[in-house]
Amino acid sequence: MSLQYLLDEHIPPLYRTQLVRREPELIVRIIGDPDAPAKGTLDPDILIWCEVHNFILVTNNRKSMPKHLADHLAQDRHIPGILVMDLGRNIGEIIEELLIIAGASNDHEYQDRIEYLPLTL
């Protein structure tokens, strides 16, 4: 399993707990962890961190993240990907989607893209 996830600070920590409980090899960080961006880090800086450290960002930021990604790409930068989730959806469905993505995707499948979860309806 080579994909790694960085969970936005607004994603409840229960998501990480459930992800690593189901797939202990999966690397999941949350903004605010000692080896992740600090809480309150601006979105453009989070995208740079994800690019440097090769993490897919998992966020619920539907409003401004597309603009941040466009600006990031306009600077000739890249990102492993952004997965935007709806916190109103069932946690089990979202966890299952994230596990399927991590287990079945190649390293560059989501590069420079935003995908909205769930991918399947």
Write up what this structure looks like:
With 121 residues, the chain is of the alpha/beta class. It has one domain: Rossmann fold (3-Layer(aba) Sandwich). Helix content is 36%, strand content 15%. The chain is built from four helices and five strands. The protein has helices at residues 14-22, 43-53, 65-74, 91-104; strands spanning 4-7, 27-30, 56-59, 82-84, 114-116. The chain has a five-stranded parallel beta sheet, sandwiched between helices. Strand 4 (82-84), helix 4 (91-104) and strand 5 (114-116) form a beta-alpha-beta unit. Helix 1 (14-22) crosses helix 4 (91-104) and helix 2 (43-53) crosses helix 3.
Name some characteristics of this structure.
single chain, 121 residues, alpha/beta, Rossmann fold, five-stranded parallel beta sheet, 4 helices, 36% helix, globular
